[in-house]
Amino acid sequence: MKRFLTASVTATITAFLTSVCVVNLYPEMVFSAEKTPSETPIMNNENMNEEEYDDTPIQLPYPDAVALWDFETLEDQRAQDGNVSRLQAFGDVEIGVPSESSMNGYVARFSGKGWLSAGQGAGDELNLHGSNMTIFVRLRLGTISGSYPILSKHGGHANMAYNIFAFPDYIGTEIGTTGNGYTRKITDESASSSTQATRTVFTRRPLSGRALFSEMEYPETVLERWHEVVVRVNEAKMELFVDGRCVDEDFVVGELAQNSVPLLFGAQDTGNGGPDAAHPETLQNGFIGEMDTVAIWNRCLTDEEIMLMTAYASGQDSVDMRERTDRGNGESMQYWIPPNSYFVGDCMPFYQDGVFHCLYLLDKGHHSAKNGKGAHQWIQATSTDLVNWMHQPFVVPITEQNEGSICTGSVFYHKGKYYAFYANRSMDRGGILESSVSDDGIYFTKQPGPLVEMPEGYSGSLRDPVVFVNPDDGLCHMYATTSYRGRGCLAHLVSADLKTWDLRNPIYLRANDSEPECPDWFKMGDYYYLVTQHEYRYSRSPLGPWLKPAANSSLMAGMVNVPKTAPYGENRRITVGWTRQFGFGGAVVFHEVIQLPDGQLGTRFVPEMMPKTDAPTLNILNGETPRDTKNARRVWENALPREFRLELEVTFDPETVQELLDYTIELGNGKKITLIPACNAVQIDNEMIPDVDFSTGSLTIDLFVKRDLCDVCVQNTRCFTAILPEEETRTLTITDNSEILVGEYTLNAEKRPSRDSFQFRSGFTLKKLTVSPLSNR
Q1: H-helix or E-strand spanning residue 535
Q2: Nearest-5° angle of CA 738, CA 744, CA 745?
């Protein structure tokens, strides 16, 4: 069977590789085996008819594979030094099954009751050495009742070499290395209490990645289609590709692990035993499906080799080139979480030439990756209108094994170039200040570092840099988080060329060792602002002194972490942060920053990013909440769907509002939003939103519930983000404890009057209450 690349596939791959500055699409390697799937012509002219081909062979990367099985027979097609690694078949597995969908016309068919063993290879070549490898498996999955192994040199998690497996909702991979794992302290309880010793134990943990079926291009046909699965390991990271798209990764410490367990197809041996597959006490099988081709390399294949191999194997326009962060459905970035097992960490937005860039730390495992260093990398999505977003390649990826994490920083545009400043939390020391440079804000090149070395008295860590131009002296200034003589502070450095930096006195000195993290600096109107973590300070001068606001000093209150800002257009500013309901890393939240007349800041929803809704399911206009002296509650059973928008407006007499008691909106699950007019505040959970304006006689609350996030905006000037556990429906309850005495009454000092002798009315009037389900459109 001959397989062809269509003109559209060829053009698409070529355009993609050109856009990311990858070298020649067809590397100079010749496949010389007698039986090969690689001798397939490729088109030279994009305008040719797809049925017309020339005779130029495609050069696929099989020549230097340490092993290649096409399953026409049990033989390894890439004999090493003349030794052929012959597979052994066990149980119910068929070899050489004819198939029109195969690359060479034959497949191996597994029933769930059989497997193949390659042992260690003819010359132990299946025990891969160093820190580079690639595995290619083309397969079609059958029914997955629980889980099953696909290709495995297992040996238990502490002895893992490599493993590819399937669960009902994803394909997974594990790769063993010598240095990945975790440490813990244990106490020798066998010793007497007076001599008990504590020792540190290191437990190896394999690298892991997964491809969720729900995130694939055609999730509904996952079990019907052929898939090209590639696992690639280089010196710095492991990456998992499915159907040409990189969907997940993990990070290398040390070298590839080896073991004495055989390489099995359709089974796994979790022991660490002998050279054959006959270990019933440790063997697990159950793979149902077909395998077309399996190849293993002791090197890292290039992006173009993987894409060419995938396109060739699929034989159709099916190479999925989306970024790993792109679901491909055009979803809004508001309340967004990346696909698969990723999360959003610290955000670093910037705006230039009409483009809003939302940069963020791509998090895997909530800071647990790379032995707890985090292994964060900078990636971004861009938009010109805040509605349509394009997911871009990595801005600053991990490319060296010693890079423990690319930490928070900022992007600074200066004299036609984009500068990314950040700390590299290396594996062997603290934060090292480094930079990358770009001409277009998309593709960055790392610069030699470190950028600065701090003198004695400063802590070894220098991180979270923000760079800006001081309009008073025209120089570039940098604030970065550190400590000075045991006190948390911001280091202050100045440069004329962004290369050489002069150190000035630290600012924002704390009274203790608490460090002011993730600073942000910007100008808005006549004021300058300095933000650290949640709190902001403001000043009339670009370098301070920095004043604490009289009331609300929080920029993004509630569950949002590390707010940073960027302008949008001429007169707007957007703040972006992430939610901490999972620990480190969560969903991204956008709010718009507004400036109040006294220079203090507020926030409101971003109009372009408000989720779309369907028609209201509850709509009360100009209606007073029923209330009497005995019952101040109104309940709407199951009125709140799983995801919704709620809009509420109450009116009141501003002359008497300070005398009123509370007005509470309860969203179920114990989530309450309480208006407290006597304090000029609104309380959500146990946190107070202060300085709310009750002077107008009207108060509005607008909120969205998306997944488990409850994002609230009060008076269009104060936002708060909370967590609301997910439920299919919730009951809405309004409790109105406000009351105003109606009429005139004479009080008798000798006899206490009953409450029923008085007339009361509510202090609040419900003018609007609307509940609208979020739209799936």
Answers
A1: strand 535-539
A2: 95
Answer yes or no: are the C-beta atoms of 240 and 206 closer than 8 Å: no
Q: Is the pLDDT of residue 5 over 90?
A: no
* Cα–Cα distance for residue pair 771/253, rounded to 1 Å: 51
Q: What span, in angstroms and rounded, lies between the C-alpha atoms of 662 and 674? A: 6
Q: Please say if the pLDDT value at position 445 is more than 60.
A: yes
Question: What pLDDT was estimated at residue 578?
Answer: 98
Helices (H) and strands (E) in the chain, counts: 2, 52
Cβ-based neighbours of 461, under 8 Å, separated by 6 or more = 423, 430, 431, 481, 482, 483
Is the preceding omega at residue 450 within 30 degrees of 0, hence cis? yes
* pLDDT number for residue 21: 37
Identity of the amino acid at 328: G
Cα(359)–Cα(578) distance, integer angstroms = 12
Bridge-based pairing of strands 417-426 and 431-438 is antiparallel
Residues 521 and 201: their CA atoms lie apart, in Å, by 44
CA distances from 555 to 82, 380, 529, 560, 720 (A): 68, 22, 11, 10, 9
Query: Could you check whether the bond before residue 149 is cis, i.e. omega within 30 degrees of 0?
Result: no
Q: Which residues contact 497 (CB under 8 A, 6 or more apart)?
A: none
> How many residues in total does the chain contain?
777
Token reading at 559? 């569950």
Instruction: Quickly state the pLDDT bin for 174 (edges 50, 70, 90).
Output: very high
pTM above 0.70, yes or no: yes
CB 492 within 8 A of CB 458: no
| CB-count burial class (<10 Å; 0-12, 13-18, 19+) for 610 | middle
354 HSE (CA, 13 A, CB side): 2
Q: How far is CA 249 from the centre of its chain?
A: 12
**Residue of 2, 1, 82, 68 whose CA lies nearest to 31:** 68
Structure-block tokens of residue 508: 């924002």
Beta bridge partners of 491: 480
Cα separation values, 73 from 35, 86, 97, 116, Å: 12, 9, 10, 12
> 87 near 265, Cβ under 8 Å?
yes
Q: What percent of the chain has pLDDT over 70?
A: 86
Residue 271, SS3 per DSSP:
coil
Q: Distance of CA 702 to CAs 644, 647, 697, 720, Å?
A: 11, 5, 17, 11
Give the torsion sign (CA, 581, 582, 584, 585): negative
Q: How far apart are CA 340 and CA 604, in angstroms?
A: 30
Sequence-ordered list of residues with C-beta below 8 angstroms from that of 435, at least 6 positions apart, any chain: 419, 420, 421, 422, 446, 447, 449, 451, 498
For residue 702, report the phi and psi dihedrals to the nearest 5 degrees. -125, 130
Mean pLDDT of the chain: 87
The number of beta carbons lying within 10 Å of the beta carbon of residue 680 is 16
Tokens 């004695």 found at: 456
- What are the phi and psi torsion angles at 726 (to 5°)? -70, 135
Which residue, among 171, 94, 95, 84, has the nearest Cα to 119 in the 3D structure? 84
The answer to whether 126 touches 155, Cβ cutoff 8 Å, is no
* CB-based contact 211:340 (threshold 8 Å): yes
| Mean local confidence (pLDDT), 391-405 | 97
100: burial class by Cβ within 10 Å (0-12, 13-18, 19+)? Answer: exposed
